[in-house]
């Protein structure tokens, strides 16, 4: 499961509020009532939008795993290679506890542990994810390491971080992992807030490993988010299937096109669903009856891309010192190891 980012600022041509106030969080994240409340809140914004965290129902999570294998989405493979190459430095014997936020399939953590080999010592691993399916997959991926104690936390990052700040911390270094460029799905304000929250439970000497996708030629970015196989389009449109299923809506999928744009001013890829015709959509469980114009879009995700220096700056602003930064040979992706001073 991915992070729970707020939707980013509005598009320039819009007169919309930049960061719509979130609806009150009376319902636990993950409940259908909360989903209904968020769908209502965000779909009546201008421009219309939906929080990207809802892309990851069971099918959405599988589609995302498929995206990670696409030749046009090199991020995951680049990150895996960097993790394997630098594992001995990342995971030396001083690390006694790992916290991974949003582990997905657990394959990255298992690759890191395997590559660290004899350089590592005994470890506890705390995995925080809202998806029970993702946590089960992570447990399976980590089962081969008999000396690893795995504790799963089925909750949001925020609640997981709060729990960890109160938890007793064994001697040794805590290493927090926030990989896959999940940070890219936060708007800049939310990102800075979240990095400060990550810093919160860390003691001096504890570390954060942050995986971030870098700015690259626009053609590569467009292919990564609008792949020729249409997997990303399916991932995007599946959100409408989810709303139909969970909130009894009547979205007709083939009346919405996957639309991707590179917003150079803000340094982000935007994913939208564009209404291909004038149409009415009813979402009974969200109390919505919408009239969409032909060409009107629903903004479903922002994916910010960074320069290596920008990553260092954002970590320093959040109270970290940078220990090391590695990029792949093509300069498309960066892993940054930061430390709480
Ligand atoms: C999870 N997140 C970092 C992915 C990204 O690249 O923003 C989600 C994704 N959206 C479309 N393709 C992949």
What's the topology here?
Blueprint lengths: L31 H12 L4 E2 L8 H12 L5 H16 L4 E7 L5 H10 L6 E7 L2 H11 L5 E7 L2 H10 L6 E6 L9 H12 L7 E7 L4 H8 L5 H17 L8 E8 L4 E8 L3 E5 L4 E5 L4 E8 L3 H10 L3 E7 L5 E7 L2
Parallel strand pairs: 1-11, 2-3, 2-5, 3-4, 5-6
Antiparallel strand pairs: 6-13, 7-8, 8-11, 9-10, 12-13
Bound molecules: N,N-dimethyl-L-histidine (AVI).
Provide a compact summary of the structure.
With 341 residues, the protein is an alpha/beta fold. It is built from 10 helices and 13 strands.
Can you give a write-up of this model?
The chain contains ten helices and 13 strands. The strands form three sheets. A seven-stranded mixed sheet has the order 4-3-2-5-6-13-12, with helices on both faces. It starts with 31 loop residues before the first helix and ends with a strand. 35% of the residues lie in helices and 25% in strands. Residues 1-20 have low confidence and may be disordered. It has helices at residues 32-43, 58-69, 75-90, 107-116, 132-142, 157-166, 188-199, 218-225, 231-247, 308-317, and strands at 48-49, 95-101, 123-129, 148-154, 173-178, 207-213, 256-263, 268-275, 279-283, 288-292, 297-304, 321-327, 333-339. It has 341 residues and is α/β, with parallel strands linked by helices. The longest helix is centred in the C-terminal third of the chain and has 17 residues, at 231-247. A hairpin with a 4-residue loop joins strand 7 (256-263) and strand 8. It binds N,N-dimethyl-L-histidine (AVI). N,N-dimethyl-L-histidine binds next to strand 11.
């Amino acid at each position: 499961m991915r992070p729970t980012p707020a939707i980013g600022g509005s598009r320039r041509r819009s007169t919309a509020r930049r960061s719509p106030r979130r609806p009150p969080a009376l319902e636990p994240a993950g409940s259908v009532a909360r989903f209904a409340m968020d769908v209502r809140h965000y779909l009546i914004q201008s421009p219309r939008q939906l929080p990207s965290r809802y892309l990851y129902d069971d099918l959405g999570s599988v589609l995302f795993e498929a995206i990670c294998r696409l030749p046009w989405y090199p991020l995951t493979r680049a990150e895996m290679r960097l993790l394997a190459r630098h594992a001995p430095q990342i995971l030396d014997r001083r690390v006694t506890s790992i916290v991974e936020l949003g582990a997905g399939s657990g394959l990255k953590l298992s690759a890191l542990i395997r590559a660290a080999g004899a350089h590592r010592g005994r470890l506890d691993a705390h995995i925080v994810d809202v998806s029970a399916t993702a946590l089960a997959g992570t447990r399976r991926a980590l089962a081969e390491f008999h000396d690893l104690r795995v504790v799963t936390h089925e909750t949001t990052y925020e609640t997981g971080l709060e729990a960890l700040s109160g938890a007793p911390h064994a001697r040794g270094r805590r290493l927090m992992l926030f990989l896959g460029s999940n940070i890219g799905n936060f708007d800049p304000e939310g990102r800075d807030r979240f990095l400060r929250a990550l810093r919160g439970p860390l003691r001096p000497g504890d570390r954060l490993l942050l995986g971030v996708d870098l700015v690259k030629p626009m053609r590569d970015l467009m292919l990564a988010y609008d792949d020729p196989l249409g997997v990303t389009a399916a991932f995007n449109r599946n959100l409408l299937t989810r709303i139909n299923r969970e909130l009894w809506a009547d979205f007709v999928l083939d009346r919405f096109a996957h639309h991707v744009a590179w917003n150079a001013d803000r340094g982000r890829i935007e994913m939208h669903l564009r209404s291909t015709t004038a149409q009415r959509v009813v979402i009974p469980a969200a109390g919505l009856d919408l009239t969409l114009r032909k060409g009107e879009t629903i903004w479903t995700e922002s994916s910010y891309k960074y320069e290596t220096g920008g990553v260092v700056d954002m970590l320093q602003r959040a109270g970290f010192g940078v220990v090391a930064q590695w990029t792949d040979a093509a300069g498309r992706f960066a892993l940054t190891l930061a430390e709480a001073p």
